[in-house]
Design a protein that fits this description.
This protein is of the alpha+beta class. It is 23% helix and 38% strand. The chain contains 4 helices and 10 strands. The strands form 2 sheets. Strands 3, 4, 6, 7, 9 and 10 form a 6-stranded mixed sheet that branches. Strand 6 and strand 7 form a beta hairpin.
């Protein structure tokens, strides 16, 4: 009888342990050449249908967050790839390089690539690359990287 109870008790404890876990925010990866970084969202609204996190405040202060952003070394003319989790692609996302949008419409694919324009000056502090997920005219998530030379 005790042999039957032990596995059931173990399953119950495992279920309790999993119930305490929090779901991770979606990730975005940025790749250039042999360099790659992956980051969870700076902010992500898990419940987009209700009032949730306010990513707007964070978006207006990206320059302050840039020193802590993950760096991707690259050079002018190189191709940079951005890979987003499927949940981000489902609703559409936009990437901004040095404050300029990289596409005129939301991207609904999980992968997008662009070349760093020849007129860009990359510096050691980093040129910002932001990825924003927007749903129903509300920012749902935000990721920040920096492209360095």
């Amino acid at each position: 009888m005790i042999r039957r109870i032990a596995p059931i008790a173990a399953l119950g404890l495992a279920a309790l342990a999993l119930a305490g876990c929090t779901k991770p925010a979606p990730g975005v990866s940025v790749v250039s050449g042999t360099h790659s970084v992956n980051e969870e969202a700076l902010c992500w609204d898990f419940n987009i249908d209700e009032a949730g996190l306010n990513c707007q405040n964070l978006a207006t202060n990206l320059q302050d967050a840039l020193p802590n952003a993950l760096a991707v070394p690259s050079m002018v003319g190189n191709t940079v790839g951005i890979s987003v989790d499927p949940v981000v692609a489902e609703e559409g996302w936009t990437a901004f390089f040095n404050g300029q949008p990289l596409s005129s419409a939301p991207i609904t694919e999980t992968y997008y690539r662009f070349s760093i324009p020849a007129a860009t000056t990359l510096n050691a502090e980093g040129t910002p690359l932001a990825v924003a997920s927007i749903s129903n005219n509300k920012m749902r998530g935000l990721w920040l990287f920096k492209i360095t030379n």
